[in-house]
Amino acid sequence: MIRIVLPFHLRTLAHVGSEVTLEVEGAVTQRSVLDALEARYPMLRGTIRDHDTLQRRAFLRFFACEEDLSHESPDAPLPDAVALGKEPFIVIGAIAGG
Fold first, then answer.
1. Apex CA 88: angle with CA 86 and CA 90, to 5°?
2. Which is deepest, 4, 65, 71, 83, by most CB within 10 Å?
3. All structural domains of the chain
4. For the segment 61-96, what is each residue's pLDDT rounded down to a tens digit?
C-alpha cells in the first residue's frame, strides 16, 4: 500500500482524512501514484497535474523521505520506503506571497 499525504484543500475536495492509502500496480513512480490517486478520487483530476500536459501544478510540491521530488522525472522510481508503505508520498501546497 502506498501512503499519500494531501494538503488540506485537496483533502477537503476529496472528502478524505490526512492520509490516503492506495494500491499501485507495477513500478511505483510519481506518475503511477498520481494516476491511481486520480482514478480513485476523480474530483482531484486537474488539481495536482494539468489536465492536458499532466505536468505538476506550479504551486504544489512533491516530497518523500525528506527529499523534494518536485523536479524529478515523473517516471523515476520513488524511494523504496515509499513503495513499501513505510514512508508517505507527500503533496504540499507551496506558499507564495510578498
1. 165
2. 4
3. 2-93 (3.10.20.30)
4. 999 999 999 999 999 999 999 999 999 999 998 776
